[in-house]
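Revision sheet: structure tokens.
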Amino acid sequence: MSTLSAKRRRLLGAGLGGLVAGIARAADTKELVVPAGARTDAWDFTGKGIDGWTVVEGQWSMQEGVLLQQATRNTFNVIVSPLGPYSDVDVTMRFKPISGREDASGGIVFRFAEGRYYLIRANALEDNFRFYYYDRSRSLLSSARVRAPALGQWHTVRAVAVGDRVQGWLDGTLLLNYRDQRFKAGRVGLWTKADSITAFDQFSIRGIAAV
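Predicted:
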């Protein structure tokens, strides 16, 4: 009798544990929301160009009303906006991968400070959507399988960071959901890799100014 009761207790405990874990996972995949008091800024590339932006690496210029990255020999190409720095932030941009044999990517850099940053990127040559951190070299934190975004078409990438939680969205679908405490605050920007020639437009930020 005591053995049966012990088994029942174990089964009941396992069931409750699975239920709690399921609830936690469901709660964890809710859309992150930047706290109240955040400021919204939408950068008008057509009107402002890239005045005030910092080119870390790459060949960034305005072409026919969009921002174009054309360098093809760098490991990574990064440009950082003059807005911020932010702690919690919600960043959205549109990108069009135009060409590239090694890479055809576009990404959002966030919490950029002293050359270190987080990155969420998509690549038209790969069936994945990825979250990295960069600190003298790039390291993968999380990856999701996707249908590679088509070359020559516009796609939307969104990165949201609230506290130690980060979410990544591609074309309106939440694909990445991760926790990392490495970087707390910084500026935001755009990214490509290797021989990617990529256009960017409709860059918007909703963020809490870093103290």
